[in-house]
Amino acid sequence: VAPLIERFGGKYLNNGVTRVLDGKAWQPERVIIIEFPDKEALDGWYNSPEYQPMKKLRDEAATVMLIALEGR
């Protein structure tokens, strides 16, 4: 997936195991943060024909929550 993310201008900011310090509502085992230059690049990657087979494999193998944040 990394080369495809890079093709759309994205870069991994982290890719690691989490440790929840406070709260019980969300207890993820892993959080991956990817930065894209803009919404169009994110949408281009997510909706690209090349990503769709990877997305299908991901969805079959794991419980996933994707969240898009805008701004800093």
Please provide a written account of the structure.
With 72 residues, the protein is of the alpha+beta class. It is built from 3 helices and 2 strands; from the N terminus they run αββαα. The chain has a two-stranded antiparallel ribbon. The mean pLDDT is 90.
Question: Could you tell me the mean pLDDT?
Answer: 90
Strands of the largest sheet, in order across it?
1-2
Please report which band the strand proportion falls in: under 5%, 5-15%, 15-25%, 25-35%, 35-45% or over 45%: 15-25%
Put simply, the count of helices is: 3
Run of helices and strands: HEEHH
Low-pLDDT residue spans: none
First-residue to last-residue Cα separation: 24 Å
What helical percentage do the residues reach? 25-40%
Please report the total strand number as a whole number: 2
Give the radius of gyration: 13 Å
> Sheet bearing the most strands, described?
2 strands, antiparallel
What is the approximate shape?
globular
Structural class: alpha+beta
